[in-house]
Amino acid sequence: MKRAAGLLLPVILLAGCGQGNPPESMNAKFEKLDYQISVRETVAAPSDPSIARLTREYAALVRQYASELGPEEAKRRLTQEAEQVGQYCLACAATLYDAAKKY
Fold first, then answer.
1. 40 found inside a domain
2. Residues of the domain holding 70
3. pTM for the complete prediction?
4. Which helix (H) or strand (E) holds 51?
């Protein structure tokens, strides 16, 4: 009986975890934005304004998490995304490269 009660207590406590709407983790936000950009790259025309909007959002997300990422990782992420987006939107790549210069 004590063993069952001992096992039941952690289950009850852990069941309370995850209640409500916890904010998305940093990596989940980056993955979601990466996916949205990649879909636009493959499906939309290069003149699609949503790619420019998404790249600005990406730069803002890196800026938001810059203290957690560190300057090297922030610069790496922005540069890598700029290289991928540059094939479809040169202005978008320039936005990301400019953001990377700050790190």
1. yes
2. 24-100
3. 0.71
4. helix 49-64
Is pLDDT at 48 greater than 90 in this prediction? no
- Tokens 């990596």 locate to 27
- Structurally, the chain folds into a number of domains equal to 1
| Contacts with 82 (C-beta within 8 Å, 6 or more apart), sequence order | 92, 93, 94, 96, 97, 100
Q: How far apart are CA 74 and CA 79, in angstroms?
A: 9
Structure tokens at 83: 């290289």
The answer to whether residue 2 is domain-embedded is no
- Decide if 52 contacts 95 (C-beta within 8 A): yes
Query: Per residue in 25-44, pLDDT tens?
Result: 999 999 999 999 888 877 76
In a domain, 49, yes or no: yes
Tell the residue number behind the tokens 């409500």, with chain if given.
20
Instruction: Show the tokens assigned to 44.
Output: 């939309």
> Does residue 59 sit within a domain?
yes
